Automatic annotation (TrEMBL), chain A:
Residues 13-240 form the ABC transporter domain. CDD domains: ABC_DR_subfamily_A. Pfam families: ABC_tran. SUPFAM superfamilies: P-loop containing nucleoside triphosphate hydrolases (SSF52540). It comes from the Bacteria. GO terms for molecular function: ATP binding; ATP hydrolysis activity. This is ABC-2 type transport system ATP-binding protein. Coiled coil: none annotated. Keywords: ATP-binding, Nucleotide-binding. It comes from Tistlia consotensis USBA 355.
Automatic annotation (TrEMBL), chain B:
The keyword Glycoprotein does not apply. Keywords: Cell membrane, Membrane, Transmembrane, Transmembrane helix, Transport. Belongs to the ABC-2 integral membrane protein family. Residues 147-376 form the ABC transmembrane type-2 domain. The keyword DNA repair does not apply. It is found in: Cell membrane. It comes from Tistlia consotensis USBA 355. It is a multi-pass membrane protein. Signal peptide: none annotated. GO terms for molecular function: ABC-type transporter activity. This is ABC-2 type transport system permease protein. The chain crosses the membrane at residues 26-46, 185-207, 233-257, 263-287, 299-316, 351-371. Pfam families: ABC2_membrane_3.
Amino acid sequence: MSGRAAENGQPVIQVTGLTKRFGDKTVVDGFDMTVPKGAIYGFLGPNGSGKTTTIRMMCGLLTPDAGDGHCLGYDILTESRRIKERVGYMTQRFSLYEDLSIRENLDFMARMYRLDRRRQRVGQALEELGLADRAGQLAGTLSGGWKQRLALAACLLHEPALLLLDEPTAGVDPKARRDFWDEIRGLSDRGVTVLVSTHYMDEAVQCDFIAYIAYGTKLIDAPAAAIPRQVGLATWKVEGPGLAELARTLAGAPGVEQIARFGAELHVSGTDAAALGATAQARAAAGPQRWTRQESGLEEVFIHLMAQSRDNFARDNAAPDGGAAGRRA
Amino acid sequence: MTAAFSFARFLAVLVKEFIQMRRDRVTFAMMIGVPILQLTIFGYAINTDPKHLPTLVESNDDGPITRALLAALENSAYFDFRGTVAGEAEASRALRSGEAIFVVVVPPRFERDLVRGERPAILLSADASDPTATGGAIAALSGIVDGALAASLTGPLQGLAARPPAFQILVHRHYNPAGVTSFNIVPGLLGTILSMTMVMITAIAIVREAERGTMETLIATPVRPAEVMLGKILPYVLVGYVQTSVFLALALTAFGVPFAGSAAAFLVGLNLFIVANLALGFLFSTVARNQMQAMQMSFFYMLPAILLSGFLFPFSGMPGWARAIGIAIPNTHFIRIVREVMLKGAGLSDILPELGALAAIVVVITALAMLRYRQTLD
Ligand SMILES: Nc1ncnc2c1ncn2[C@@H]1O[C@H](COP(=O)(O)OP(=O)(O)OP(=O)(O)O)[C@@H](O)[C@H]1O
Ligand SMILES: [Mg+2]
């Protein structure tokens, strides 16, 4: 039972052509992915791009309309029950029982996976969470961040070989997020494979690989470090006085596609490096600011990518609403 | 490695449901309170002995025996004489309009015929549309009359008293010829209360998981449909027991309903009925998208369960299509079982056909529910 994949060196997740339609809307379209054992795979994409849907298909919660694949060596179409035994899935929305106490929730999960030494495991999980003295508190009365931490603890109870984490750190404070990622690292070092969706760039940087999805289609899939080069985005850093005024005048200038404020700096990026370079040199000569060419960071890259696919499915969603409003008027 | 049915996971669901049930105080209180409340409210209807019922008299004879008889009726406190009527047309108008529930007609030459030993008939016309209202009075009638006659037929007429009935009383029940007895409301009410809570609460209990999003965690575990279904249903079987106990205790003591038959037969029927309702609730919950819909479906189901099950209207009086629907409703069979067992003293063997019908319904509903239960979020 303990992971056929582990023994013969197969990838932990290998899916091809995954497609999911809701009505006539194709939400995930021909999605391929290969996740090696022990990797931390970041899953990025704008809101509504199909991340949650893809993750749900991988662990058998949704049936794909097309495509197939394996998870931990089990067929995602026919052996989802076996996959479920070895996967820890943390849902995007808190989905433990709010009217059960913290301990009761953990107890429930431990029972569901038929774990031995249940009391001991639950007690240990409570200790590690730092919730041992509040174990009797109803889960629904926890703060948002604590709910996330409880949900993570719950999906780790049965020591899964694969973790599917859907925006696990949304609403979690920076210290807890750091602890959280330390734990993910630790798990990964012990051979646990992690697929994690996130909107935080500082978390994307921590991933070994990143898959970027928009409109249900995967646009990028590469080691995290290789992505900026792959996208081919040139970036100039601007420091000095009057940045707000400069940002206004830069909009629409040749080669400038994106202007992002980073604290006391302005990052000006574009895919046409030559045009952008010319603009930069001209402005550097004309103004008091200091312009420096720099390597594009993941953050610039993803702002760039997301700007291109800003409102995923927004048009599809807007159409019926607009129609209804029209009829009402 | 994956067992077909894991007792541990079933237990997990069971424990969780019990905890949630305990925490949801309002629902819990309602489940226990409903039988008490309903029976108390219906208790007035179950009151088998309503007195002072408006009565009109058409007396075509004026002899002392007639007068003694009418006086005895009035003294019994069941009949409250409100006046007289002349002729059958007037009498039936009074019954129809509700002005009177009874009309007593003493025929002409009643006393003469009585003395001649011709056994004349006194006609008691009753509005039996509400059998609980008239049942007690009608039942008491022969006793009242016997008493009155024993006092009147003295001296030379003593010979008449010795012979069995010197005259007859013809009771004409209008509007409800079957004359369903008042106790009949108990089986129907028990069935209705159980259905109402069992169907609705199970239907809601599962839809709630989907609505709150907890379904996603639940089905992301290796849990099987049977484990979820049994784990969710069993706590409510116990609730059904509690409701039944409360209801029966009240019905037997406060309202004097008899329990003539076999307790074992009753229990078997009760269990089958409860399971049928829970399975039905589970089925609804696999169709409903939110708790509101689950509620509405349960209410919608309650209508035929009340109207076509023989609870309010005699089953045999319904048209064929209505009987066909009624046969498929668990309440129909449960009402018959309880009626047979409690009122007619039936044993297990007497109710086998009804048990068989209930079992068939359970099998069909359960199969449908298991088929409908989604193990995915599709
Ligand atoms: N059950 C469903 N029925 C119909 N449409 C759905 C359903 N679930 C998701 N969708 C649609 O599928 C698309 C992708 O949704 P999904 O939740 O996978 O996006 P996501 O990438 O996880 O977004 P986010 O970053 O906001 O979590 C959205 O347009 C959404 O409206
Ligand atoms: Mg999502």
